[in-house]
Amino acid sequence: MKNKIHNANNNAKSSTDKGITNPLEHSNLVLLFLNSADHSAIIKDTSFRYVAVNKAFLEQVGLKNDDQIIGKTIYEVFTNTTLKEELDKINKYDQIALGLPKGENISIEFSIPNLDGDERIYSSKRFAIYDEQDQVIGIGSLSINITERKIAERELAKVRKELKEQIAVQEQTLHKANKTLQFMSHLFENTLDGVIITDADGIAQQINPAFTEITGYTLDDIEGQNPRVLKSDNHNKKFYEEMWASLTKTGKWNGELWNRRKNGEIYPQRLSITAIYDSNNRVTHYLGINNDISEIKRKDDKINFYAYHDALTNLPNRRLFSDRLRTEINRCQRRNCQIALLYIDFDDFKKVNDSLGYHVGDELLKRFSVRIKEVIHETDLFARIGSDEFAIAVIDFGNVNSLMVFARKIRNILQKPFRIEGHDIFITISIGIATYPDDSETAETLLQHADTAMHQMKGESGVGSEVRFYTSQMLVRAQNKIDMESAIRRGLASNEFIPFYQAKVDSETGKVVGMEALARWVKPNGDIVPPGDFIEFAELLNLIGDIDSQIMEISIKDMATFKNAGYDDLIVSVNVSSKELEDPLFSNKVIKTLDKYKLNNNQLEIEITESLIMKNVEEKIKLLETLSATGIRISIDDFGTGYSSLSYLKKLPINTLKIDRSFVNDILSDPNDMAIVSAIISMAGKMGLNVIAEGVEHAEQIELLKIEGCTIIQGFYYSKPLPKEEFLTFLREHN
Questions:
Q1: Which of 320, 327, 466, 493 has the smallest number of Cβ neighbours within 10 A?
Q2: What pLDDT is recorded for position 27?
Q3: Which residues of the chain have pLDDT under 50?
C-alpha cells in the first residue's frame, strides 16, 4: 500500500509538470487538509503497521517526524509509555475495523500518555480502506482528544455521586430522627416514670400519663403551674435551696423527697431534674423524671425488719436479741441488777416434722411463741435463735426461786396440747439457765453458758424433767467434748483405731477357734486410749459407726494375714453399731470387703447387742437375713441383759448367743446367776445355737460352764485382747 501511495505522489508531480490535471493532486490536498486539522489521522496496512500519520497525531504522541513511527506497530512504538491492556484494546479494534464493509466504522475510546506522561483520552473511529478493485489495503483512523471532556464528565460524576451520598445520608438521618422521635414519643407516653417538662422559669408545659397516675394531676390541672403545688412541707427551705443550687451549678439534681398527691396523700418519690440548654448554652427547659418509691420503701422496711427478726414467728432473731441483751447488761451494770437467760429447746421436735410435715412443725413453733408471750413481762426479752430453740432474758429477776417459779409456769402452759390439723401435739422442752453477772458479763458468753446448761440437762437428766443452771464444771465438760471430737476425727483420718483380738478357746481341746475384734485407740506416740475413755464420746458424737467401720475393714484384712499364716479355720467377731445397721448399703460394703481380701463369708461373725437388735426389730430381721443368706454369721452379744422377746429371738437368723460377763462373774457364788447361765445354755442348745461365755477369768468358772454344756470360752483366763502380731504369736503357741 505504501508503494501505491508513493507512486501516486510521483505521478502527481509528473502530471503537474506537464500542466495536466491529475486526480492525485486531490490526494495531496487531502493530506494537507488532514495535517491542518487538530484531529489525529493515521493509516495502517493490513499488518497494522503505520503507513501514514498526520501532524496532529505526531504532536499528540510526542514524536518529531513520521520516520519514528512509519512501518512500526503500536507495540513497537508505545510499549514503554502505555499499558499493555490499552495497546491490546487498540489492536483488537484495529482487527475488527479491518473486517468492516466499505462505508462502515467502529468507535473506540483509549488512553495514550503525552510527552509529559500525562494521560490523554481519545475517541476514535476506525474503518477499512479499499482500493479501486474493492480490495482491503489497510485501515484508517480519525481520533479526537476528549481528555478535558472526560475529566469534566468524571468531575460531574463525582459531584453527582457525592450529592447522591449526601442525599442518602440526609434521608437516613431524617429517617432515624423520625424513628427516634416516634420512639421518644412512645417512651414518653408509656414509661412507668412520671415525666414533667417545664420552661426555664419552672412553669409546667407537658406531662406524661404516668405523672398523672402517680400524682393524680392532669395536664389541665398543672399546665401553667409551678410544680411546687406538689410540695408536702416535709422538707425545709434549705432543702430546696440546695436543690436549685445544684441545678444552677451542674444542670442536674437527683434525690429522694416526699411530695403530695392531688388527693392530699404524702408519698416518697425518687426525683431527677435535668436542665436543657440551647445552642447558646442558655437554659430553655427543665426535665423532671420521678417515680413512686412507696413500695420499695415498704420492702426496704420489711427487709430491715427480717434482718433482725425471725420470718416465721416475727420474734427477734439471735442478732437483735444479742444487741438488746448487751444493752440490758450495760443498763444493769449501772443499776446493779441481775439478768437470767433461759435457753429453751424442744425435745424430739424432729419427730413432729418427720411424722406430720414441716408445715405442722412451723405452725407449732408459731403457737408456742404465742403461749410464751402470755407469761413473760413487757420488760423481758424473747427471741427465736435457732430451728427449735428460743431464749428469754428475764430482766432484774428477784432470786433463784422466782426463776424456778417462772420456769414451772412455762412448763404448765405446755400441759395443754397444741391442736393442729386435727392432731393433738404434746411437747416437752429442756431449759438451761445462766445468770448475769454470776455466770458471765457478756451477752455472747451468757447465751453460750445457758445453751451448755440446756444440753447438759438433755444429756444427764432426760428430756422435759427440770431446768438446769449453768456451772463452771459444765464448761469444762463441754470443752472436753469439743477436744475429744477433734481428737477422734483426727484419729479416724489417721487410722489410729485398730482391732485388738481376744481369743475364743475351745476349753476341751485348748484350741483357738476364733476371736473378737475389740476397738483400741493407739495414739502416734504408742499410748493406748482405753475404750471406756472414748466409746461414750463416740456414741454421743455419732462417730461410733465410723470407728466400727474402720475396725471391720482392718479385721477382715488381718484375717487374710492369719489365713496366709496357715490359720484358715478361724472366725472373727466384729461389733456393729446402729448407724451401720441403718445404712442400706451396709451388707454390700461388708461383702465387697470380704471379696477384696479373698475371705470366706462364714469366717466373719457380726456381733449385735441385744438392746440394739430390739429397736425396729422387723427391719433388723430383714437386714440380718440378707447377711445370713451370704454365709455371714450373726451373734447376739451381752445376751440376757436387755429386754428381748423370745418370740422375736426364734425369728432371728442368728448362729450364736454370747452370755454376758455380768452373769459369768458370780456363777461360783451366786446361784441365781448360775441358774440364768444354765438356762441360756440350755435354750441355745435346744434352738441349735452356739453359745459363748465371755469374761471368764478362773478355771473353776470354766469347769462349771463345761458341765452346763458351754465349751467356748472368752476371757482373761486364756488371753487379754492382743494386737495383731502378738495375737499371731499366741496362735502359734496354742494351735
A1: 493
A2: 58
A3: 2-24, 461-465
Half-sphere exposure of 175 (CA within 13 A, CB side): 6
Q: At what angle do helices 724-734 and 544-564 cross, to 10 degrees?
A: 40
Encoded amino acid at 587, one letter: S
Q: CA 463, 466, 470, 471 torsion: positive or negative?
A: negative
Nearest Cα to Cα of residue 721 among 570, 501, 571: 501
Dihedral angle sign, alpha carbons of residues 508, 511, 517, 518:
positive
Q: What pLDDT shows up at residue 300? A: 80
Which pLDDT value is given to residue 478? Answer: 57
**What burial class does residue 46 get, using C-beta atoms within 10 Å of its C-beta: 0-12 exposed, 13-18 middle, 19+ buried?**
middle
Residue range 381-415, pLDDT digits in tens: 999 999 899 999 999 987 877 888 898 899 889 98
Nearest to 342 by CA among 442, 451, 456: 451
In degrees and rounded to multiples of 5, residue 706 shows phi and psi of -65, -40
Residue 246 CB neighbour total at 10 angstroms: 15
pLDDT of residue 533: 84
C-alpha cell belonging to residue 696: 471368764
The DSSP secondary-structure symbol of 642 reads S
Say which residues have a Cβ less than 8 Å from residue 141's Cβ, sequence separation at least 6: 40, 41, 42, 43, 44, 97, 124, 125, 126, 127
Q: What is the pLDDT of residue 15?
A: 39
Asked if the bond preceding 437 is cis, omega within 30° of 0, the reply is: yes
Residue 196: closest CA among 121, 271, 298, 102: 271
* Cα–Cα dist 31/51, whole Å: 13
Q: By three-state DSSP, how is residue 43 classified?
A: strand
Listed residue (729, 735, 662, 721) closest to 515, CA to CA: 721
Identity (one letter) of the amino acid at 675? A
The single-letter DSSP state of residue 37 is S
Distance, in Å, from the CA atom of 73 to the CA atom of 50, rounded to the nearest integer, reads 6
644 φ, ψ (degrees, to nearest 5): -70, 150
Nearest to 60 by CA among 124, 1, 126: 124
Do the beta carbons of residue 195 and residue 211 sit within 8 Å? yes
C-alpha to C-alpha distance for 555 and 298, rounded to whole angstroms:
65
Q: How far is CA 571 from the centre of its chain?
A: 52
Q: Of 239, 244, 275, 287, nearest to 259 (Cα)? A: 239
Looking at residue 458, its pLDDT comes to 79
β pairing state of 604-609 and 571-575? parallel
Pairing of strands 497-506, 712-714: antiparallel
Task: Report d(CA 534, CA 538) in Å as an integer.
Answer: 6
With residues binned 3-state (H G I as helix, E B as strand, rest as coil), the percentages for the chain, rounded to 5, are 50, 25, 30
Contact between 218 and 212 under an 8 Å Cβ cutoff? The reply is yes
Return d(Cα 642, Cα 234) in angstroms, integer. Answer: 78
- For residues 219 and 225, the answer to whether their CB atoms sit within 8 Å is no
Which residues, including other chains, have CB under 8 Å from residue 33's CB and lie 6 or more apart?
none
Q: Taking phi first (over 0 means left), then psi (-120 to 50 degrees means alpha), and beta for anything else, what does residue 65 get? A: beta
Cβ neighbours, 10 Å, residue 114: 15
End-to-end CA distance of the chain, in Å? 139
* Cβ neighbour number for residue 517 with a 10 Å cutoff: 26
Q: Strand, coil or helix: what is 572?
A: strand
Grid coordinates belonging to 553:
475393714
What is the grid cell recorded at 430? 429442756
Rounded CA separation 569/293 (Å): 84
State the pairing for strand pair 266-277/339-346. Answer: unpaired
CA distance 606 to 654: 10
List the one residue out of 712, 716, 715, 719 whose CA is nearest residue 734: 719
pLDDT at 592: 93
C-beta neighbour count of 419 within 10 angstroms: 10
- Report helix angle 586-596 to 544-564, nearest 10: 30
- The dihedrals phi and psi of 339, each to the nearest 5 degrees, come to -130, 135
Which helix (H) or strand (E) element contains residue 397? none
